[in-house]
Write a structure and sequence with these properties.
It is built from eight helices and no strands. α2 (about 75-90) crosses α6 (about 145-160). With about 190 residues, the protein is an all-alpha fold.
């Protein structure tokens, strides 16, 4: 009988609205399961958003660190020194540098320090990207700066003089990305 679900309450007038105790119990379990499933989905979504937010914050912090390094006086001096060296010695600058470096020349040692500073900056960014630690937007934000043209124009020949392959991944990567960068292409490829 329908009315025993109401623990002694008088029988309802409309028996179609009656809910049996066992039916109520089954519906409650189903509702609790559904609420639990929704809660688990919401928790997973919130966790995913927190992970994405943490990753973006880490990447933003890394961009700031790279931009700070790029804007340092040491980097500015290194870039300027490399550009001046190439402009002074022209097309044969890389072989002249290598010969002078082997002879222990002070200017060649200074160029070598500048080369290492600039090369390591761009190589670190590339390694972070290919290792999956940062996304393409990191490269676009922090690495496609004006100095990438100098890196390809001056550092690449110096690195090749030391024995690096001209198709080394890092060079190929930055050449490809540099060709996509309108500002760098327009300003720095004009005279090339």
């Amino acid at each position: 009988r329908c009315w025993d679900a109401f623990a002694g309450a008088p029988a309802p007038q409309n028996t179609a609205l009656c809910i049996r105790k066992s039916k109520l119990s089954l519906d409650t379990v189903d509702i609790l399961k559904a609420i639990g499933g929704i809660a688990a989905f919401v928790a997973a979504f919130i966790s995913w958003r927190a992970l994405v937010s943490t990753q973006r914050n880490s990447e933003a912090s890394l961009v700031l660190e790279f931009m700070k390094e790029y804007s340092s006086s040491e980097m500015s001096n290194a870039l300027r020194l490399l550009r001046q060296y190439k402009d002074t010695y022209g097309e044969g600058f890389a072989s002249k540098w290598l010969n002078d470096l082997r002879d222990g020349g002070e200017e060649a040692k200074e160029i070598d320090r500048a080369r290492r500073k600039v090369s390591h900056y761009f190589q670190r960014g590339h390694k972070l990207y290919v290792s999956g630690y940062v996304k393409k937007r990191f490269i676009q934000s922090a690495m496609l700066v004006d100095g990438v043209a100098l890196y390809l124009d001056v550092n690449k020949p110096l690195e090749i003089a030391l024995g690096a392959s001209p198709t080394q991944d890092v060079f190929t990567f930055y050449e490809s990305e540099n060709n996509k960068n309108y500002y760098v292409r327009k300003v720095f490829k004009k005279n090339a």
